[in-house]
Amino acid sequence: NNQRHSNNDARRPPKTFMPTNGASRTSRKELLDLIGNNPGGHLDESSRFKFETKLRAYANTPNVDPSDVLFAIGSSVYGTNISFPVQEQTNGSKPSDEEEKETNIIIDFDYMKAFMKDVFLSYGVKPVHAETCSEVLIEADRRGIDSHGFGRLKPIYCDRMDQGILWPDKPIDVIKQTDTTALVDGNLGLGLYIGPHCMQMAIDKAKKHGVGFVVVQNSTHYGIAGYYATMATDAGCIGLSGTNARPSIAPTFGVEPMLGTNPLCFG
User: Residue 135: what are its φ and ψ, rounded to 5°?
Assistant: First the structure.
C-alpha cells in the first residue's frame, strides 16, 4: 500500500486536486509558482499579501475544491484563513458526519516525497541530500509515525533553516577514526542527510571489521531513529541508533523541563 490514509478510508478512491476549469487551473498554478519561487515568502509581508490575494481569488473560482492542500498551506504557513459555506444537500439538510468523512483526502506517498524534495531543493539543499532527506521523512509516514514525517517539514526543518539554527548545505567532516569507530562533525547541517551518511560509515566498518560505531557532533534533528536501525538490518547487520534531544520533560516532582526524550532503537 503506497497511500497514506486512516483505516476508515481504506476503501475510498483518492480525491485529486486538479481543478476542472481554466480559471481555477491558472490561479492554482500561480499559487504553486509563488510558493516554489519564493520559499521564504511567508516571512515577507508583501509576499504574504500577494499570496492571500491570489488564494482568495482562487477560492472564488467556480467549482474550487475547499479541501485543496493550498488552503491548508495558506492557513498554517501564510496565516490566510478561507471560510467556505457548508454545502447543503438537495433536500436542504446539512451533510451527515459520515458523508463529511467522504471528503477526506488521500495523498500518495510519492507525491508527498516529491513535494518535500522540491522544498529542500528550494532552500539550497544538494539534490542528492534532498532525495535522502525526503526519503527519511516519508519513511516515517509510511510506518504511521505521523509525528516525525511530512508534518515536521515546516516547523522543524524549514523554520529552523529560516532562523539560521541549521543549514541546508554543510560538509560532513571526519574528525578522527579507527577501523571500527569514527567521530564526525555535521557542522549544523540537516541531520536528515548526516544521519544516513554516518550509519552507512558504521555499516561499511562492520562489514569489513565486524563492528562499526560512529558518533556525530553538531548534527541536527535526524528524523525517526528506526530509519537508521533498518539501514543496518537491510545490510545484514545488527543496528543500534540513538540521539540526544532538547530538554522537554520535567523530572519527577519537577516543573521545569530538564530531560530530553532521547530515542534508542535496535534492529
Answer: -70, -40
